[in-house]
Automatic annotation (TrEMBL):
Residues of the full protein shown: 1 to 397 of 524
The protein's required cofactors: Mn(2+)
Phosphoprotein keyword on record: no
Subunit text: Homodimer.
Similarity-based family: Belongs to the alpha-IPM synthase/homocitrate synthase family. LeuA type 1 subfamily.
Enzyme class: transferase
Domain Pyruvate carboxyltransferase: 15-275
Keyword check for Electron transport: no
Name under which the protein is recorded: 2-isopropylmalate synthase
Keywords from the named record: Acyltransferase, Amino-acid biosynthesis, Branched-chain amino acid biosynthesis, Cytoplasm, Leucine biosynthesis, Manganese, Metal-binding, Transferase
MF-aspect GO terms: 2-isopropylmalate synthase activity
Source organism of this protein record: Deinococcus antarcticus
EC number(s) from the headed UniProt entry: 2.3.3.13
Its biological purpose: Catalyzes the condensation of the acetyl group of acetyl-CoA with 3-methyl-2-oxobutanoate (2-ketoisovalerate) to form 3-carboxy-3-hydroxy-4-methylpentanoate (2-isopropylmalate).
This protein's encoding gene: leuA
Length: 397
């Protein structure tokens, strides 16, 4: 029996996926990608169907500027964005880097929380607004598509956020991004903040979320932002990024897809490309994916306990809420270990070509398999073959 596909309740709204693997993701400690690697990832992101690729921070180094330029020249499909602080040199570097893109964007930002303004920028709030306006106007002199971010927005005063965002929109910003820079906010706060900003800003403005994972809530906060009115979500493959990382692209996309009966949102992501993108980013960044990571971890579609294995053999939907193939992976794996049951053991033998073993012999082998699993942990195909091919006469009692 297969479960009915969940049906959306209302027509889904399209959410833009802004991928920042090559910018915030590359800010993961220890990660440094060369141009060729960046280009390969950018092509993979385009094939995945992201709407925007944030290709880097061009002022950071001549290498970064060249990396963004190459992507702008060679990758077609998504918007190509370059990041810039709210100053002339950064914006000119970003403009130069994205100039060859078919769809260029400059993403400029300045901090708005009391602590960042007082301690880091050492600027009064009025001066911060002035800088934001200057930056957006300058960026608009180069490109039509300008995104403005208020760094540390979730620890900023809401009235001040509304003020600076309205000023940025008047100066020409088309997307307004609300970063939870230090991963501090909660889903209900995020939903309320977006609902507030949506009411404060003109309808044509694209509201965007950008969540970090310091409290493990980046994905939940991003989804809450969308419920509050965000129409762009900033995220990274495998959730890589500064400190605890950014919201994970694959988790947000598959949450919307799997629960489309609940969330009236859809993305343009080709889900079957997810696993390939995850493997590539992990390999090139040198950042392994934790085995129990949702969607792309080694164990995300593996079943070890006998009860679960028996259920999955009878109907995958008993313990799987999505098919592995949907994200470009092999079908679910039954891990052979000490928790495995007889049904999974029998299936594993059949899959290895041992269809005709009589029941009493399977029963006997199952006992030996359990002894071996107790000692070895996980057992592989060769272990099972060795068990069967050893002298395996069932002892006569
Ligand atoms: O986390 C953050 O605030 C950022 C901005 C530059 C958007 O990455
Ligand atoms: Zn960030």
């Amino acid at each position: 029996m297969t479960q009915p596909e969940p049906q959306p309740k209302v027509e889904a709204q399209r959410i833009r996926i802004f991928d920042t693997t090559l910018r915030d993701g590359e800010q993961s400690p220890g990660v440094a990608l060369n141009h060729t690697q960046k280009l390969e990832i950018a092509h993979t992101l385009a094939r995945l169907g992201v709407d925007v690729i944030e290709a880097g921070f061009p002022i950071a180094s001549p290498g970064d500027l060249e990396g963004v330029s190459r992507i702008a020249r060679e990758v077609r499909g998504p918007v190509i964005a370059g990041l810039a602080r709210a100053n002339k040199a950064d914006i000119e570097a970003a403009a130069k880097a994205v100039e060859a893109a078919a769809k260029p964007r400059i993403h400029t930002f300045i901090a708005t929380s009391p602590i960042h303004m007082a301690k880091k920028l050492q600027l009064e709030p009025d001066a911060v607004v002035e800088r934001a306006v200057m930056a957006v106007k300058l960026a608009r002199s180069f490109v039509d598509d300008v995104e403005f971010s208020a760094e540390d927005a979730t620890r900023s005063d809401w009235a001040f956020l509304s003020r600076i965002f309205r000023a940025a929109v008047e100066a020409g910003a088309t997307t307004i991004n609300v970063p939870d820079t230090v991963g501090y906010t909660t889903p209900d706060e995020m939903r309320d903040l977006f609902a507030f900003l949506k009411a404060e800003l003109p309808d044509h403005v694209y509201l965007s979320s950008h969540c970090h994972d310091d409290l493990g809530m980046a994905v939940a906060n991003s989804i809450a932002a969308v419920e509050g009115g965000a129409r762009q979500v900033e995220c990274t493959i495998n959730g890589i990024g500064e400190r605890a990382g950014n919201a994970s692209l694959e988790e947000i996309v598959m949450a919307f897809h799997t629960r489309r009966d609940h969330y009236p949102f859809e993305t343009g992501i080709r889900s079957r490309e997810i696993y390939r993108a995850s493997r590539l980013v992990s390999r090139l960044s040198g950042m392994p994916v934790q085995p129990n990571k949702a969607i792309v971890g080694d164990n995300a579609f593996a079943h070890e306990s006998g009860i679960h294995q028996d259920g999955v053999i009878k109907a995958r939907e008993t313990y799987e809420i999505m098919n592995a193939e949907l994200v470009g992976r092999e079908a679910a794996v039954l891990v052979m270990g000490k928790h495995s049951g007889r049904a999974a053991f029998r299936k594993a033998l059949t899959d290895l070509g041992y269809q005709d073993i009589p029941d009493d012999k399977v029963q006997y082998l199952f006992g030996r398999f359990k002894d071996l699993a107790d000692r070895k942990g996980q057992l592989y195909a060769d272990d099972l073959r060795a068990l069967v091919d050893a002298r395996t006469d069932v002892p006569q009692t």
